[in-house]
Amino acid sequence: MGAGVARKAGGSGRRGRRRGASAAMADINVTPFVDVMLVLLIIFMVAAPLLTVGVPIELPDTAAKALPTEQEEPLAITLTADGRVAIMTTEVADADLIPRLQAIAAERTSNKVFLRVDGAVSYERVAQLMGALNAAGFNDIGLVTDTNGPSFGGN
C-alpha cells in the first residue's frame, strides 16, 4: 500500500530530466488491502455464530415475537431437561439460587431476566423457578422460546 517508483521507458522527458530517471508513482495499490479485509470478513462471519454462550437446551416453539433489547446485558437463567439450573453459564445448586440471585440483583440496574427452559421440563418445576426469581427481586421475567411455533389461529 505504498507508493512505488516507476521508470520511464525512454524518450525525452521534461526539461532538466535525464534519460532513465525515476519518477514517483502516484497510484496506491489497494489489492492487498482488499484481500486482508475479505479474509477478516470471512473470519468474523464464521466466528460470529460461535460467540453465543449458553447451556444447550431444546427450547419450545411459539409464535411470540422477540422482546426489545436493553442497554444492560440481560440476565439469563437456564433450566435444563435434567433439572439443573444455571445463571448465565454457571451451574448453581437449588439451595444457593436465591442468595446468588439477590447478590446479582443488588449489582444490577434492571430487574429483567430471561428464563430459558428445556421443553421437556414440567410446568411445576418452571413455576418453582419463577417463584425463586420473584423472591430474589426479579419481577420482569421473559420466557425464551424458538419462533415459528403454533399460532393457535393467529397471524
Question: Care to describe what's here?
Answer:
The protein has 155 residues and is of the alpha/beta class. Helices cover 28% and strands 18% of the residues. It has three helices and seven strands, in the order E-E-H-E-E-E-H-E-H-E. The protein has helices at 31-47, 94-107, 123-135, and strands spanning 5-7, 22-24, 75-79, 85-87, 90-92, 112-117, 140-144. The strands form two sheets. It has a five-stranded mixed sheet with strand order 5-4-3-6-7. A two-stranded antiparallel ribbon has the order 1-2. Strand 6, helix 3 and strand 7 form a beta-alpha-beta unit. The longest helix is centred in the N-terminal third of the chain and has 17 residues, at 31-47. The protein is elongated.
List keywords for this structure.
28% helix; 155 residues; 3 helices; elongated; 7 strands; alpha/beta; two-stranded antiparallel ribbon; 5-stranded mixed beta sheet
Q: Are there runs of 5+ residues with pLDDT below 50, and where?
A: none
Rg calculated over all Cα atoms = 30 Å
Give the count of helical stretches. Answer: 3
- The average pLDDT value, as a whole number, equals 80
Q: Strand content of the residues, in percent?
A: 15-25%
- List how many beta strands DSSP finds: 7
Q: How can the largest sheet be summarized?
A: 5 strands, mixed
Q: How would you write the strand order of the largest sheet? A: 5-4-3-6-7
Taking the alpha carbons of the first and last residues, their distance comes to 55 Å
What structural category characterises the helix and strand content? alpha/beta
How do the helices and strands follow one another from N- to C-terminus? EEHEEEHEHE
Question: Helix amount, in percent?
Answer: 25-40%
Shape: elongated
